[in-house]
């Protein structure tokens, strides 16, 4: 209860061990489902479940039912048109990263959007080309169909031009990535994205931004640079660029700088005045239109030799079947594409779902993107995800649902079918400049490094490891290396946790790290040891070593010393060189007692000490016969705080039981507190308990165990002054007896130690 007018609480309850609590409080029986029960439930079908399944597979039904035409339709139209114009430009620009003819980017901004409209759960992301995915596709394309030299020997390449071969590679690897996403969605493994932490994704996308920046330099400078893939490709590419730097096309450089400066300034104004602008200024579209007009009017291609977009065919091409041989060649690259594409899209979708208060389903998103990529690849599109800038345009211009996304696809379709020819004089350097300016957000992630280093150094190592590996080894190997570093950091944190010795905060039932507080109380002969992690095969030895360090002695060494001392005492008693008197052992021999060097039967030294054939039980902390020395153990009780231990594996069970037996055999009482009920149940199931290690050592809380110890060892507090005693407001009732207190003169019914 709360005391009136004071921020204090008073609790009156018995002192509980796990056994006494279980006896007094009956638990609710819960039937645990077996694997067979889960399988039966999964395949059980009724009307309600069929309806829910249809709604989950077609989320469009759910939000169309609540669509507010008068309030949302106009916003979706404005958003769709704005997003569509940006999607056209980014489709052309990001296609350069994939080393494909530019108009195929329009396909990727159209076909996946149609499928996502029906299957996706996010209402705000803009589906289409994503620069990191485009770059990963480009590395596969240039590996199988390089700029210089013959392509890889693949069945199905016969009779195709180089561009057609590249389109076949891009569509096939996209199809395979889509299959992987679809299978993961059907198998309900959307949780896999949780293994990609924000730190890892940040480092990976920063490295991808550097790769994108380097890949676009050839367009900004107007140089002919062959596509290079594989480890250290970025270094080889920079080497070629610097070797050809004298051949730079000045016109391309000037156009790029003008576009970059103009787009950057207007984007900054958009960010600064976004609360006052009804819609962001579509500066990329404006600069593209201006560049097209100027390039056409002054015939830049003929006069200055710049590279332009060129002919854009009208309409769509017939469906294309994927190449199975390419599947075999690209399976390793397709999997990281599937993961990265989904992870980025899901992260962005999660941000907008929280902002606009609706839920998204990770497994359904996998199905949606898998189906989108399979459908798009059939029509020669490449892998789709979401671009952060394009999604921001769709949301900030008032988009409420994926109707805005559908309208953006209509804008792309109009360009593809009718007005694509207007973009033919567009310099590729303009597209490269637009791509680079849109990298600002990813490149600014370098600012995370000082913050991470100050707040969490292991996370900083993950960021740097992922970024550097992705830069130098390539995005696919870099992602794998980053994931390895991340998992290693998790394992190391669990393998080497920060163990601590706890002490009581005076006058409370609170226990904190001994190193952190001044006004503390630590009863003599009592140690409280805390391990803040699961205990498993990798850290059980670390746990035992830290426990020995906290205790100040090795119990196994002490046990062996005691057994060796007992062996010597028995031998001396048998010879008559040692006699037992009321005052203790008396040495009757004339010479000094020599310590036995007999190391035979070492196994016996690890057994419990046996006093049955001796005249008395030996006090190991008292004076022993001459030349017989045993390490003094000044601890009589050890409390293990298991509040943060979430699981134990079999190796940990064996190691823990061995450690407990060693302590018990050197007459140290061990108590385990705050143990998870499922761990306790597992201990029973695994036959953890025996004559030495018993269930009675488990207590509900630290304070319960401490009160129990001080009740059994009142000498632990006798040497302390009154103000140094543990004083609590917890009243302890002893079942079957009257209220007892540690201080006979205490006026209040409180247990005081």
Query: What is the helical fraction, as a range of percent?
Result: 40-55%
Rough shape? elongated
Backbone CA Rg:
37 Å
Q: Which regions have little confidence, pLDDT < 50, spanning 5+ residues?
A: 727-753
Q: How far from one another are the termini?
A: 22 Å
Largest sheet: 7 strands, mixed
Estimated structural class = alpha/beta
Q: Compute the average pLDDT.
A: 84
Beta-strand content bin = 5-15%
Question: Counting H and I runs of at least 4 residues, what is the number of helices?
Answer: 30
Beta-strand segment tally: 13
Explain briefly what this protein structure is.
The protein is α/β, with parallel strands linked by helices and 753 residues long. 54% of the residues lie in helices and 6% in strands.
Supply database-style keywords.
two-stranded parallel sheet; 7-stranded mixed sheet; elongated; 54% helix; alpha/beta
